[in-house]
């Protein structure tokens, strides 16, 4: 063994002790760590010939890099849709690294990590009140989950016309319908060879809505004259957290032949609360669903899962099978995740989720979801009552989409946001909503309290004054 490695192995107790203490120290002050930084690093460090061991690497990290780490996992990082990491999820994440299994097969792998993953999916189905007719697995994020689901949908579409796209490539144009697809679904259409522009945009419901207009949807379906299609629907759009009407879509599914995919990256967690559960009513009838865990479930990146109905198992294997390696066996006989999703070797991403679900239970996640919505409504109340701001969309769940009041301030929106973010107390992201420049604050972090909302409001007011916005 290399001598530095040998030294590190001997010193492992001390090394992990240091890291544990550093973790505790950071988590103890995460509330006051800046939410952004304007400092940069030079990225051209030379690689040394001989290593100097984990402790020295840690020293350099602490000197050069750690001070630039922002509080993305903290209570006032409201940009994108950013969750944090609960204590139990950190335990699961650390242990995933320690045990470092390759989560693939239930047999012939020498371990049970794939079974832990299946158990975790079953726990998630219970949390979200979804039927066991869904089979699922973990991928890195909702983008990869959308990719996995839409890849199976693509294979389904080919089969309807008698083609095998997985084997022969795309030999017929696909019909894709969607109203407000997340940018990642559009990216998936590009990655899947379908083409990012090759979808039909369905109208949204009249009024300030992003949900699909069911009448327009049916009109477009009729225009297809009985041809199959793929519907990409939304449980929680990123700007206004709007939900498609899943009961109405389920009714259409009785009449027409289509693959129904739901992107429920964060909105799926509405199912955790009796107050918001109605938003996903009927979603169990979908063919596939995308859900992120590194958002509202508050586990560390990278964690999301796909759900695909078991009846489509063969289509999924046709899409992803890796069975030309003889030692992997028959994909129908020997279950292995590598025949069901893009990756082959995989981290046991299920473990942080498993720990979280056991540690906090249904009640824990109901509380997180309801608290997030309450915090969103407090910010909403401020914006509604303050003359410097106006809402762009009603706050339906956990996302607040707003702007500076008045058309004349449209060019100042980005200036205001940069100014606010540069104060490093709260972080939000820019958006464009119905052709107006706006700002989004998304609440999914388990730590956020009323105090944080008040602190952010104070910074917003100060920014308006400092910039002289009227
Ligand atoms: C965040 C998000 C995605 C993309 O998820 P990643 O985890 O960043 O890949 C897709 N769809 C929706 C609705 C999202 O909110």
From TrEMBL:
The keyword Transport does not apply. Its cofactor is pyridoxal 5'-phosphate. One of its GO terms (biological process) is carboxylic acid metabolic process. It holds the Pfam family Pyridoxal_deC. GO terms for molecular function: carboxy-lyase activity; pyridoxal phosphate binding; transaminase activity. Belongs to the group II decarboxylase family. The modification N6-(pyridoxal phosphate)lysine is found at residue 295. Keywords: Aminotransferase, Decarboxylase, Lyase, Pyridoxal phosphate, Transferase. This is Aspartate aminotransferase family protein. The lineage of its organism: Bacteria, Pseudomonadati, Bacteroidota, Flavobacteriia, Flavobacteriales.
